[in-house]
Design goal:
- The chain is an alpha/beta fold.
- Among the domains are: about 80 residues, no CATH class; about 100 residues, no CATH class.
- A nine-stranded mixed beta sheet has the order 7-8-9-4-10-11-13-12-14, with helices on both faces. A five-stranded antiparallel beta sheet has the order 1-6-5-2-3.
- β8, α9 and β9 form a beta-alpha-beta unit.
- α5 packs across α6, α6 crosses α8 and α8 runs parallel beside α9.
- The protein is globular.
- The protein starts with 11 loop residues before the first helix and ends in a 10-residue tail after the last strand.
- Bound molecules: adenosine-5'-diphosphate, iron/sulfur cluster and magnesium ion.
- Magnesium ion binds next to α2.
């Protein structure tokens, strides 16, 4: 029998109200999106800093689900500078993938919508597209060409019924329709060599199942790099691989990034992966950025109690401990987020002020920013993340 006192219980009446509300809101948002296709003013803007490739500015991406609105990404701010690697870390479900899918406009629509903020993508001369409103015709030219993605499981990213060569050729052809066949193939072979595949002619005519996991991930990297993108999004690129292969793939990514002058957005739940590779680190928790800074700042001077907890729960070679630290409690219910610090119920460093509203962003150095009341007197208060009131949509 249903437990009416259970907070996740939804009555039939409430369920009908949510369905009706979702239908109205998503219909309206989809209509606005279709409209934005016409006027370039609605999707062109300027970069705050022309040295960034991407600027996430107070991005809010919500899912209008049958149990209510899930604020998967809620007021996220961070930049990806040119030719650098930005690690985005946080536990499973904190909104890392949704942030990257918002940038690619690959959200599951109509239920998933970016309802607030700007995602500026640098197109040169200080000009930018605001990806949130960019029409599909332009997105098709950006995806795979200017921004490409590498996923966790290489077998599911590759098509099992096509040969490796054809799958890489396809990307080059799609973005360079004029290129002659021989040149396309030569480029593919060049890419295979670049990602460290010795028998490139042989692999060109193989099927994905004939390759090992590490080799498949190299192929995915070759596909992602086929058009020399300005940004590579690597979403847990090594999680499905064993440890020795992980290191090789990360090394490969880092080398190729430097060769192509690209930037990398490296998404992972594993701090170890970020440590060796990232220039900047963004720590997310429950759909928000709680701390960001250079890799050095985050690893040597973590400030937010959650980041400190993450560091303590990471095994360190040469340090003997009886038991690894475990952050107590769990993430709040994403449908009804509290209006105080999302980490408060798990936090062991609570102080005065923590019962107030969600903490503001506080700048502790030029590059180091943290959202926590413990630092309220230590730096400049930059402002509060702006959530969108869905009732007003
Ligand atoms: N298609 C979807 N519909 C509803 N909720 C979703 C959908 N995709 C993701 N979410 C929710 O958004 C939140 C963030 O997910 P995600 O970005 O995938 O997390 P991660 O940090 O592990 O990549 C989670 O609470 C997840 O349940
Ligand atoms: S604001 Fe308070 S409750 Fe939240 S993380 Fe900082 S110390 Fe902990
Ligand atoms: Mg993910």
């Amino acid at each position: 029998m249903a437990d009416h006192k259970n907070s996740s219980y939804i009555s039939g009446k409430e369920s009908r109200r949510i369905t009706k509300f979702n239908r109205r809101v998503t219909k309206k948002l989809e209509a606005a999106r279709a409209d934005a296709n016409k006027d370039p003013k609605l999707y062109t803007t300027t970069m705050k800093d022309p040295n960034n490739v991407v600027e996430f500015d107070n991005v809010c991406t919500y899912f209008f689900t049958d149990v209510g609105t899930v604020k998967a990404v809620d007021g996220v701010n961070f930049n990806i500078p040119k030719c650098s690697t930005v690690g985005v870390v946080g536990e499973s479900g904190c909104g890392k993938s949704v942030t990257s899918l918002s940038l690619m406009q690959l959200l599951q629509r109509p239920s998933g919508q970016t309802v607030g903020g700007e995602i500026r993508f640098n197109i040169g001369d200080g000009k930018a597209y605001n990806i949130v409103n960019t029409p599909n015709a332009i997105m098709e030219k950006i995806r795979g060409n200017k921004i490409s993605m590498i996923f966790q499981e290489p077998m599911t990213s590759l098509n099992p019924v096509f040969r490796i060569g054809e799958q890489i050729d396809e990307v080059t052809k799609l973005h360079n329709p004029e290129m002659p066949e021989e040149e396309v193939k030569a480029r593919t072979l060049e890419m295979l060599e670049l990602v460290g595949i010795a028998n490139k002619e042989g692999v060109y005519s193989m099927y994905p199942h004939e390759l090992s996991g590490g080799m498949r991930q190299r192929i995915c990297i070759a596909i992602a790099l086929a058009c020399s993108p300005t940004l590579i999004i690597a979403d847990e690129p090594t999680t499905a691989l064993d440890v020795t292969i992980q290191a090789q793939i990360l090394d490969l990514l880092q080398n190729l990034k430097d060769k192509l002058n690209s930037s990398i957005m490296l998404i992972t739940h594993d701090l170890g992966v970020v440590a060796g590779m990232a220039d900047y680190v963004v720590v997310m928790y429950a759909g928000r950025v709680i701390e960001k800074g250079t890799a050095d700042e985050i690893f040597h001077n973590p400030c937010h109690p959650y980041t400190i907890g993450l560091m303590r729960s990471k095994p360190v070679v040469g340090k003997k401990v009886d038991e690894l630290y475990n952050i107590p409690g769990s993430v709040p219910n994403p449908v009804n987020m509290p209006n105080y610090c999302y980490f408060r119920d798990r936090c062991e460093m609570r102080c005065e002020g923590c019962d107030g509203k969600y903490p503001p962003e506080i700048r502790i150095s030029d590059t180091h920013i943290v959202s926590c009341y413990r630092y309220i007197n230590d730096g400049e208060v930059l402002g509060y993340p702006k959530s969108v009131n869905v009732e007003e949509l």
